[in-house]
Amino acid sequence: MFKRVLVANRGEIALRIIRACKELNIETVAVYSEADADSLHAKMADTAICIGPAPSNKSYLHIPTIISAAEIGNVEAIHPGYGFLAENAHFAEICESCNIKFIGPTPQQINLMGNKSQAKETVKKAGVPTIPGSAGLVDSSEKAVKIARKMGYPVIIKASAGGGGRGMRIANNDISLANAFMAAKSEAESAFGNSDVYIEKFIENPRHIEIQILSDKYKNTVHLYERDCTVQRRHQKLIEESPSPVISEKTRQKMGEAAIKVAKSVNYENAGTIEFLYDKHGDFYFMEMNTRIQVEHTITEMVTGIDLIKEQFKIASGEKLAFSQNDIKISGHTIECRINAENPEKNFMPSPGKVTGYYSPGGKGVRVDSHVYCGYVIPQYYDSMIAKLITWGKNREEAIDIMRRALDEFKVEGIDTNIHFQKEIITDDSFRSGNYATNFIEELLKNRE
Predict the structure, then answer these.
(1) pLDDT digits (tens, 9 = 90+) for 241-252
(2) pTM given for the model
(3) Fold of 207-448
(4) 367 is catalytic
(5) Which of 75, 241, 325, 382 lies deepest, with the highest CB count within 10 Å?
């Protein structure tokens, strides 16, 4: 096992990784921007190194500075968390060339699965169902129209290097497709430095289901069942739960087997997530693979009892998985609400600023992953998520009831948050019944008007 590790991230995920390291007796080196000088991850690590000004491109995305910090800190490995450099193959290559272990898959695996068009062709060959779409990238709106007419509308244009809903546009006819095509390319170039796009048949009102996998260097691969991430706003997840309220045991098994096929098709190593769309007919289609730990990894931990961050370290240090597929069981039901510093009444406008009061909920079945404390100043430069509230119950109804109670207890003063909006979601009849799709939030907001 590693003796000293650098955590190349911030906020709650950096704190989560540091806690896992402490339990594994690994020393930690935190990096922080000038805006994060008072952040908990910088305070809780054994060593903390400032890596530059607040903007991400001058700190958390600045590879030379992070590598310099790793060399100064004399670390053996770097954990990238999620976001920032977590799926950056170039960063993984540089770590490798500096004899620093990247806690994650190889640069080749990141490249292969990070290119969504290429990933789709790879999993097709492995026998995993994919959404009908273009054979590779589409380089002109004229070609896009021809493909769409052949497939039938509606279609969705997607950035090949995309994520988080950026570089995605839906089109219902030739004219809207031509406009959407150029808009998607422009947004993809701006967000990812890569304007490549491809086209897929748009699956209307699906569920978003993802499967967590772990795979070691000895080709042992397991899945840890599904997470239902259907509650989203503008392709950004708001609530996740496990198990899914709509997946049958038979489908659960099929999706798990499909996820393992995807991982094995690229000889994957470490933790990863295979994302699927699940339609109203009960069919599912591969969407993409995330070659990193996910924000919502917590709910998988709650129902399986497996610490995914610790497993990442064990796999990266060369250990074999200590369990087989038959050892992994789902126990109870768990839900995660993402608590964001934003105002749902003002079109979800971000709300940075000083937290003047903070009370975190507790009690049986409650877990809170957060880097916030009373007096902490939330910077304007980063993602608005400030906490993950997770509840566990013996069944879905109990997990929801505990979540309702925990949201009532959660107090954050001095800034706006989406706590009340999350409570509105989980008390909604459609959510409680499990009868909803990815357009759920749009419908909920429409009904409020």
Answers:
(1) 999 999 999 999
(2) 0.90
(3) D-amino Acid Aminotransferase; Chain A, domain 1 (3.30.470)
(4) no
(5) 241
